[in-house]
Amino acid sequence: MRGQRISVRNVADLARAGFEIARQPVTKVDFEVHHAMARPGYLRELVTADADDAVFLETLCSATNGAGVVIGTRTRKPPDGTEPAEPAGDLQPAERPRQNARGWVFHQTTSPNPTFIYESAQTFEGLIAIDPAAREVYEWHGLAVRDLVREISDAASSLVDAPLVSLQCPAQLPTIVKTRNHDLRTRKEVAPPCASLAVRFAIALRDASAAARFELADRFRELCEKHGYSFWLADTRPGHRQGNWFEVCHADGEFSPLYRGDLRSRQRIGTCLPVTFVGPARIGSTNAIVSFLQRYPQVGVVGCAATTLSDVAFVHLQLAIHGVATERLNRILGKLLGESSTPARPDKLLRELFKRLGLPPDPDGPATAVQDPTGDYQTFAGPAFAYRPHQMPDCMAVWVSWEIARQHRGLAAPLDGLYHALAQVAPPPEPMASVGDLATVEYLICRATEQSVIRGKAKLAVPRSILRGFSSGGGGEPPASRLCAALEEAWKAHVDRSGVDGVSELTVAWRESWLGHSAYS
Questions:
Q1: Alpha helix (H) residue ranges in 228-382
Q2: Architecture of domain 123-178+191-263
Q3: What's the whole-number average pLDDT of the chain?
Q4: What is the pTM of this model?
């Protein structure tokens, strides 16, 4: 029976691939990868700077630990109607970055995988908290995140033969609900910290049976009980939208017993190295990358953001390499990328980088897979940034979502209006400062649908000091709710005045589950 389902699925995938190729003759996806220092306003400046360079078809943005990434895709045919031949596999050299004052920018082209398809209603979404009380990132955190991502990706590929379609760390934990003596009349909801040391993930189930969901849930529950982690599942019951979570197991947030023995791993990290891996979306690609990193005990993962855009997989990892200073890492990496013989393949580029840093692989580490799904992937690394702790206690999360007709300005239309609305409704906490420039986009995902509609969702970190201007008022509404209501109204008004066509939904909320119906991961 299982074999028959797989055979029918393969035929359906093949038919979809043929339809996509016939409908859209462009078989290449142009994309940009920006590795920059995390600072307020960077994304806004990028998408509004130049109309020719700023328009992205789909976008992923993430910022943490003082470093940020912006990934944008375009799909276009070269002017002469032909596509240049590209070196295949190991022969493709690593991309040399275009450097500017803020970071490194990579421009490249890759092939999509039109057979990569999943239905959002059949995803298995989970959230695992490693150390919710952490205010700084230590070396053991990086090892724990690395190993956890490996377990998640391995469960997706080997347990249910399904793609890992979303990955995010750090992530916001579920809303804190308080009652007095379990009396529901005293129920009170408190916003959790803007971001916590947790991994959020989504697996697209090819087999959407209850047995497959239970098999995954049991594996993650056992893993969390072993490590002392907290575990939530997305609440898929009727009436529960995305952002509602069901707690499976609770932990006290103590030091994971599996990392207790190494005292060196309790030091604070000093450097973050952003690395982005790009290639046709396939099952097992993230698992192959993280399995390779596990061979190096000195290399941890302190942040990640992965998804598929235009049927292309983008896996972004922030690496923390123990005992390597930022200046030395950038000097060695710059020399490596300047050589024409440096390969773009993930395992080969990283192996050469670690070799020059003096990091030997662990002979007892995970073995290399016989069939590597990342054999034709490209790797974009650097520059390294000095670690900067996240000011989580001083910031609150504001979630926003939008739906707009596809247009030339792309992401610039809704984002520019949002920043203008922020500056209007929230008084600047400092003289000569704009609240719009102080708000940091910590996570953003923007996709284009076949109906020529752009849908997006973002989480902004805004200073809690903004709430002082919304502390007074009737109705018993909390200041965060009044802030979001005022921001949403000002956002809609600014978009109306700017004459942007095709806007059907703009929503703002301090809870993700209160966003518009079109919001998604």
A1: 285-293, 326-337, 346-356
A2: 2-Layer Sandwich (3.30)
A3: 80
A4: 0.87
